[in-house]
Automatic annotation (TrEMBL):
Pfam families: Peptidase_S9 (PF00326), Peptidase_S9_N (PF02897)
Domain Peptidase S9 prolyl oligopeptidase catalytic as annotated: residue spans: 474-689
Region (Disordered), start-end ranges: 1-33
Segments forming domain Peptidase S9A N-terminal: 9-413
Name under which the protein is recorded: S9 family peptidase
Coiled-coil spans in chain: none
UniProt source species: Glycomyces rhizosphaerae
Source species taxonomy: Bacteria, Bacillati, Actinomycetota, Actinomycetes, Glycomycetales
Length: 694
C-alpha cells in the first residue's frame, strides 16, 4: 500500500457486557452509537477515506454511469396535472436544479392541460420551489405540502438535516406571503379543517414515534396549540387525514397488527373525535373512507386477506359485507369517490386495481406478464376518471386515466428516457424458485435482449422481505447502466413481504423470519440452476430491513455471492430490539418479537442477527452505505457490523461509506443522489467482473 493510501481502519474494542435470559455477551463496539463522540466521527471519516481509496480505480466508471443517468433523464420535465376543485396541480423540474417545484394552474375543463416542459406557462402559480428553500443548505427535504380545501392557503414543512423532524410553515396563496406561524419538530403529513382556519399536525416522541395530534389555529402562536389526541401505547403510531370528500377528519392509530380510527366532522374542527366501530381490537386492522351516507371499511377480522364492506355514518358498528374474504386475493385498500370505490388488490404476486361501481367489480387489464399498477393522485371526489400509476421492468413509469363510463385507458404520460432507449431491447421474465420447504417463490427478471440463460451472465439480485412491503417490478433509468453491460437484474419476492398475500408476510416474520433469508439464497441458487446467473457472478443488494437480509445471507451463504451491497442496513437487530429507548424499537416488537420478555425470541433473533453471527469465514465483498442522521436505522448498526467484520475476518473485503449530511433516504438533491447511485453501481459492476464492459 502506498504512503498516500489510508490504512484499513480499525475500531478499538471496549468492554460492554450485555446479559439477557442468562446469556452474557460482550458488545465491544457499542461505543459507536454516540455521534457526538469525536472517536466515532473520526472512525466514520477514516472509513470514508478508506472506501474512497479502495474504489479510486472506479472513478472513471462512476463518472460514466453518472453521465449515463443524466443523459437519459429529461432534466426539465413536469408531472401530469391533477385536478382538485378549480385548479390543476403539478410538479416540475428544471435542468441544473436539484429539487422539484410545486405549481398550479386555474382549471378549464376536465382534460389535463398539455404543458410543454421548459416553456413559460401563462397563469402558473408556484406553491413551493425546493431550490429556493434549500439554498445555503447541504440537505433539504419537504415533509408536507398541503393546500387548504378552498385553495387559498398552503401548509408546508421543511427539514435541513435528514432526521425527519420538520418545521411547519404557512403561506397565503392569494398574496404569496408567509404567515408568521412557525412550528418546529413536526412529523410528516397533517390536515386542514374544511374552512381552512385550523391545521392539524403530529409530533414525535423521543423514540421517533408520531404519538400526538395537535390543533393549530392559523395566525395564533404555537403556544396556544391544543393537544387533540395522544397515543400512549408505544406500539402505535398516530396520524391525521382529511377524507377525499372533505367531510371528515380521521385520526388513525396503528401498530403492526392493530388499528383504531377516530372521526370528526371536518366543519367542526374544535369538536370531539368519535371512536369508529368497536374501537381497538388486538390483531384487527381497519381502514376507513367516506362516501355519502356511509363509510367504506376494509378489515381483517376473521379474514386474513381482508374483506370489504360499509357501515352507515350514523352507526359505525353495522358492517355490511360487499367483497368476501378470498384466500387467493389480498385486498389492500379501498378508496371511495362520490359514486364508486377503487379497490387495490394483489393476486399471484401481481398488483391489481378494480372499480366497484353499481355493485359490479371490474378489474383493469394490462398486457405485460409482470408489472406494477396502483392508484395515483386522485383528490377529485366527484371524478369519473381514475388516475393510475403503472410500470414494469421494461416500461418506464406511466400515468393513465381510466374512464369508468367507457372502460378506456388513456395514457397521459410515460416518463421520457432520452437517447437510444427502446423497451423492445429488453426482456422480462417471471421465474419460480422452490424453497427448502417446497414453497414456490416468485422472481422477476429483466435483461438486455441477447443476454441468454446460458450460465455465464453476471446478476444483481435484490430483496427486501419485511413488513408486508412488496417489491413490485419497476423501471429504473439508473439500472440501464447495468443491463447495457450485460448484467441480469432480478427481484426475489421472498416471504416477509406482501407479494403473495397476508400469509406470505406471516411466514416471514417473528419466529418464521429465517424463511426470508433462506428464500433469498434459494432464489440465488435457482437463478444459477436455470442459467440466469453465473455461479460466481451474483451480487446481492438490499436496504433497511433488506439490509438485515443482506447481513443474514452473508453469514448464511458467504460463498454464494461475489458481493453484498447493504443500504442503510438493519444489521444489529438483536441489540436494537433489546433497547426500548432506541427509535421505533417498541413498535417493532410485533414484527420481530420481544426478546426482553421471551427467551425463545431472544435465542431465535440471536441465531440470525448479522452482527451476532459474524465468524472468521471469508465473506463476499461488502459495501455498507449509511447516513449519520438516519433516525430509522442508526448509522451505528453498519458501523459496528463493519468493525466486527474487520476483526473477525480481516482478509475479507469490507467497506463502509457514511453520508455525513443525510438521513434514511441518503442525499437529498437529485444530482447528489445520482452520484451516490453511480458509486454503488460502479462497485457492483466491479464485483461482477463487468466494470470494463461497454
Amino acid at each position: 500500500m502506498s504512503e498516500m493510501q489510508p490504512a484499513k481502519p480499525t475500531a478499538p474494542r471496549r468492554d460492554h457486557p450485555r446479559t439477557h435470559h442468562g446469556d452474557t455477551v460482550n458488545d465491544p463496539y457499542a461505543w459507536l452509537k454516540d455521534p457526538e463522540d469525536p472517536a466515532t466521527v473520526e472512525y466514520l471519516k477514516a472509513e470514508n477515506a478508506f472506501a474512497e481509496s479502495r474504489t479510486a480505480h472506479l472513478a472513471t466508471l462512476r463518472k460514466s454511469i453518472f453521465g449515463e443517468i443524466k443523459s437519459r433523464t429529461q432534466e426539465t420535465d413536469l408531472s401530469v396535472p391533477v385536478r382538485k376543485r378549480g385548479w390543476w396541480y403539478y410538479g416540475r423540474t428544471e435542468e441544473g436544479k436539484q429539487y422539484g417545484i410545486q405549481c398550479r394552474l386555474k382549471a378549464d375543463g376536465d382534460t389535463p392541460p398539455e404543458i410543454e416542459a421548459g416553456t413559460a406557462v401563462e397563469g402558473e402559480e408556484i406553491l413551493v420551489d425546493g431550490n429556493e428553500l434549500a439554498e445555503g443548505h447541504d440537505f433539504f427535504s419537504l415533509g408536507t405540502c398541503d393546500v387548504s380545501p378552498d385553495g387559498n392557503l398552503l401548509a408546508y414543512a421543511v427539514n435541513y438535516s435528514g432526521d425527519e423532524r420538520f418545521t411547519l410553515r404557512f403561506k397565503d396563496l392569494r398574496t404569496g406571503e408567509d404567515f408568521p406561524d412557525d412550528i418546529p419538530n413536526v412529523f410528516y403529513g397533517g390536515s386542514w379543517s374544511l374552512d381552512g382556519s385550523v391545521f392539524f399536525y403530529t409530533k414525535v416522541d423521543d423514540a421517533w414515534r408520531p404519538y400526538q395530534v395537535w390543533r393549530h389555529v392559523l395566525g395564533e402562536h404555537e403556544d396556544k396549540d391544543v393537544l387533540v389526541h395522544q397515543e400512549d401505547d408505544e406500539r402505535f403510531w398516530t396520524g391525521i387525514d382529511l377524507t377525499r370528500s372533505e367531510r371528515y377528519l380521521f385520526i388513525v392509530s396503528g401498530s403492526k397488527i392493530t388499528t383504531e380510527v377516530r372521526y370528526l366532522d371536518a366543519a367542526d374542527p374544535t369538536g370531539e373525535f368519535a371512536v369508529f366501530g368497536n374501537g381497538r381490537v388486538q390483531g384487527v386492522e381497519v381502514s376507513v373512507d367516506h362516501q355519502g351516507d356511509r363509510f367504506w371499511v376494509l378489515h381483517n377480522k376473521d379474514a386474513e386477506n381482508f374483506t370489504l364492506g360499509w357501515t352507515p355514518v350514523e352507526d359505525t358498528t353495522q358492517f355490511h359485507e360487499v367483497i368476501a374474504h378470498d384466500e387467493a386475493v389480498r385486498l389492500e385498500s379501498a378508496d371511495a369517490f362520490a359514486d364508486h370505490v377503487v379497490v387495490s388488490m394483489r393476486r399471484a404476486g401481481l398488483s391489481q386495481v378494480a372499480i366497484l361501481d353499481n355493485g359490479q367489480l371490474t378489474e383493469i387489464q394490462f398486457d405485460e406478464p409482470i408489472y406494477a399498477v396502483g392508484l395515483g393522485e386522485n383528490p377529485d371526489y366527484d371524478s369519473r376518471q381514475i388516475r393510475l400509476g403503472y410500470t414494469s421492468l421494461v416500461t418506464p413509469s406511466s400515468v393513465y386515466d381510466y374512464d369508468i363510463d367507457t372502460a378506456e385507458l388513456h395514457l397521459r404520460k410515460r416518463t421520457p428516457v432520452l437517447g437510444d432507449f427502446d423497451p423492445a431491447d429488453y426482456v422480462q421474465y417471471r421465474e419460480w424458485a422452490t424453497a427448502a420447504d417446497g414453497t414456490q417463490v416468485p422472481i422477476s427478471i429483466v435483461a438486455k435482449k441477447g443476454v441468454t440463460a446460458d450460465g455465464t451472465a453476471p446478476c444483481l439480485l435484490y430483496g427486501y422481505g419485511s413488513y408486508e412491503h412488496s417489491i413490485d417490478p419497476y423501471f429504473s433509468i439508473a439500472r440501464l447502466s447495468l443491463l447495457d453491460r450485460g448484467v441480469v437484474f432480478a427481484i426475489a419476492h421472498i416471504r416477509g413481504g406482501g407479494e403473495m398475500g397476508r400469509q406470505w408476510y406471516e411466514q416471514g416474520k417473528l419466529l418464521h423470519k429465517r424463511n426470508t433469508f433462506t428464500d433469498f439464497v434459494d432464489c440465488a441458487e435457482h437463478l444459477v440452476d436455470v442459467g440466469w446467473a453465473a455461479p460466481d457472478r451474483i451480487v446481492a443488494r438490499g436496504g433497511s430491513a433488506g439490509g438485515l437480509l443482506m447481513g443474514a445471507v452473508a453469514n448464511l451463504a458467504p460463498a454464494r455471492f461475489a458481493g453484498v451491497l447493504a443500504d442503510v442496513p438493519f444489521v444489529d437487530a438483536l441489540n436494537t430490539i433489546l433497547d426500548p429507548t432506541m427509535p421505533l424499537t417498541v413498535i417493532e416488537w410485533e414484527e420481530w418479537g420481544n426478546p426482553l420478555e421471551s427467551a425463545e425470541v431472544y435465542e431465535y433473533m440471536k441465531s440470525y442477527s448479522p452482527y451476532e453471527n459474524i465468524t472468521d469465514v471469508r465473506y463476499p465483498s461488502i459495501l455498507a452505505v449509511t447516513s449519520l442522521n438516519d433516525t430509522r436505522v442508526g448509522f451505528h448498526e453498519p458501523a459496528k457490523w463493519v468493525a466486527k467484520l474487520r476483526h473477525e475476518s480481516p482478509e475479507s473485503d469490507v467497506l463502509l461509506k457514511t453520508e455525513m449530511e443525510a438521513g434514511h433516504g441518503g442525499r437529498s438533491g437529485r444530482y447528489d443522489a445520482w452520484e451516490e447511485e453511480a458509486f454503488n453501481l460502479a462497485w457492483v459492476l466491479d464485483k461482477l467482473g463487468a466494470a470494463q464492459i461497454a
